[in-house]
Amino acid sequence: MGRTIIAASDLHADSASPAVQAAQLQFLRSLVNRTDVPCIVSVGDLWSLALDGSVDTVIRNSHCANVRDVLRQLSESKLVALVDGNHDPYSTMPKSELKRFTDWLAAPKVLFPGAGFNKRFAGLPTAYFMHGSQFDPTTDVWKVITDALRQMVGAKRAEAFARWVVSIYLKWKSGPTPRMVRERDPDAYAQMVSYLHERMWQWTLDKQNGYEICVMGHTHFDECRHKELSNKTYVNCGAFDGNGNTYVEITADGARLVKW
Q1: CA 173 distance to own-chain centroid
Q2: From the centroid of its chain, how far is CA 211?
Q3: Per residue in 133-148, is it b (16+ CB within 10 Å) or e — as a string?
């Protein structure tokens, strides 16, 4: 049996609906006994440790605790890597908050590779995993605002205010997703998400980039582009947040999007 790398992005486990949370656990638990899977990568935004969330948000959430328990189990037999997302920027979090989180996670075999991750597996294409918020010009603006709020009013009030702003933005109590943006403002979706996918694709094609496959997330919309002559693939995991529930499998044949 050939080997398969699994990559998923944007679960936003702490804010997903109950039905989506159940699907997330089914998906993660299905990987425990897959002997063909040596590596599982979270391509960012597994949960909200920053921006509109906090370490306390995650620690208090029972579903996040269930996800944590499965990650521990997976890491005993597989390589599990949690790449930085803009909502879970492990490598740039204050050390005290990161320690509280990792103490709660209590999974010493789980890797935190920072903004990007790559590991060579014999017989599989070379692949690089990054969240993709690096290509979003709005990310830094939102981070500056929420960081300033945390300093002025504290993490709890800043989180509450950020969630309120998000809900007001589209008058949607559960907070907007890119799918909601597309439905309510298709022009904004077409301009922003298409722009991001194009930037991610161009980065993949860059001659200085030696990877055959580049896996990203952030946009919440799955995408796969392949350039045959240069053997380059850009694949976006989409999101496992109820709006698609897609993830990526990488085998010797390349990358493919899979719907759970």
Answers
A1: 22
A2: 20
A3: bbbbeebeebbeebee
Residue whose entry in the numeric block shows the structure tokens 């995408």: 223
CA separation for the pair 144, 128 (Å, rounded): 28
Mean pLDDT, contiguous 10-residue spans, the chain (260 residues): 93 94 98 97 95 88 98 98 96 95 98 96 96 80 50 54 48 48 55 84 92 95 93 96 91 97
Q: Which of these, 240, 180, 255, lies nearest to 45 by C-alpha position?
A: 240
Q: What are phi and psi of 51, to 5 degrees?
A: 60, -105
- One-letter amino acid of 192: M
**Closest Cα to residue 249, out of 224, 227, 230, 218?**
224
Those residues with Cβ within 8 angstroms of residue 134's Cβ, 6 or more apart along the chain or in another chain? 115
DSSP assignment, residue 49? S
> How does DSSP assign 18-30, residue by residue?
HHHHHHHHHHHHH
**Four-residue CA torsion sign, 147, 149, 150, 152:** positive
* C-alpha closest to that of 257 among 43, 106, 15: 43
Region label for 23, one of left (φ > 0), alpha (ψ between -120 and 50) or beta (otherwise) = alpha
Distance (Å, rounded) from C-alpha 118 to C-alpha 59?
Answer: 28
CA distance 171 to 166: 8
* Backbone phi and psi for residue 142, each to the nearest 5 degrees, phi listed first: -65, -40
**Residue 82 DSSP one-character state:** E
pTM summary value: 0.82
Q: Nearest to residue 175, comparing CAs of 79, 48, 44, 22?
A: 48
Start-to-end Cα distance in the chain: 21
The encoded tokens of residue 119 equal 């590991």
**Strands, E assignment, 14-64:** 39-42
